[in-house]
Amino acid sequence: MHLAARLQNLPPYLFARIEEKIARAKEQGEKLISLGIGDPDSPTPQTVIAELERAAGDPANHRYPTSAGMLEFRQAVVSWHRERYGVELDPRSEVVTLLGSKEGIAHISMCYVDPGDINLVPDPSYPVYKIGTILAGGEPYAMPLLAGNDFWPDFSLIPGEVARKAKILFLNYPNNPTAAVASRERFQEAVAFARFYDLIICHDAAYTELTYDCYRAPSFLEVPGAREVGIEFGSLSKPYNMTGWRLGWAVGNAEIIKALTTLKSNIDSGVFQAVQYAGIKALTAAQENIEKLRQVYQQRRDILVDGLNSLGWHLDKPKGTFYVWAPVPRGYTSGQFAEEVLEKAGVIITPGNEYGACGEGYFRASLTIGEDLLRESLERLQNAFGHLDVARPG
Ligand SMILES: *Cc1c(COP(=O)(O)O)cnc(C)c1O
pTM of this prediction? Predict the structure, then answer.
């Protein structure tokens, strides 16, 4: 059997060695603490579960849904954007329902990328922008996200011939994995760049609701001109603890939404309507869940960042996401440090270069475990390494 090039061309998995060590340690009954997983540890709000149970019993929901999603769900998405950001959207032409935002992010390249075309992909980043580009036959062009530029791409470093060949510019703020946030002015800069080179902007807004210290992240669509050049991906996964439910949306430019809907209508037949009813419930009746989650993650963030700083780091507290992005101590690569932390402390962290070459020199720790385990992981680091020599940022 011969694998198609699009699968053969996927980047190799770099961390098989660490995965093996994790598996072996688990077999030997070691109690590992994982800071590696970006999946909320608390359950979906009860009102949302009850709505699924109700809607699952209604035979009207047992039939094929539509690819674009129920109009009622799209209307709930529109109301949520109006209340949250003051952004007006047309539920019929500017919203499409997704089986989780990952599905739309993976498929959007198939709408606009022909073999040989380029997409501009942040490095480090969530892997799906790059993988979706490759699966569509395109070539990802890495835009380094560097600490010196607040983990925002420097568009002036992208050669003109690359930008002219590029189709899609992917952005994601608050950012996974760097936990950086972006201002409206930054988004305006991206819109101007996209207009100049006739690019489509796809903004991944998975973490806009998970922000701290009174900071509230903007929607890309708040910026003038954004709707002319792009769309924004939204997700119920992180704000409502619904990663398992597979429900999200894309909103914005009607032409792009139509293209994505057309593609999807030929691949999937939409989201189970009972899940969409549950999603409406989340968007309209579970807002207090978000406030609670912000408090939980903010407290965990403070424990982890203060703890790492007492071990030698010099970290600022991130304003968004449930990640801490930290440099590895002097003398280590990302992979070496992650392996040693696993071996000596029984703690799993994610090596930064898993998210792209520019993630080398960093690791990502996730705040999706309880305070007691976070404290224990810090104690284990202290016992295994004592004080560490970590460079100051910048
Ligand atoms: C978790 C996450 C998503 C959400 O994916 P869903 O498919 O909606 O669950 C999207 N983008 C990033 C960067 C994420 O970390």
Answer: 0.97
